[in-house]
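Question:
Now give any protein.
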Amino acid sequence: MSKPGKDSPELSNEELAFEMIELASDGVDSLARAFNMINDLCKELSKEIARKSVTPPDSDLN
């Protein structure tokens, strides 16, 4: 962790802890959104694969 500059206000331990919790929460929220997007994509792809595996290829119809 970098040291604050000379112009930065000093934070109490409590204020610093709240800042760290807020940053961690933002990171967790971003990860949760990313995982939800990936999960939705996987569901869509699974459905598409299932549909394609049920449909016979054109060459089998002849």
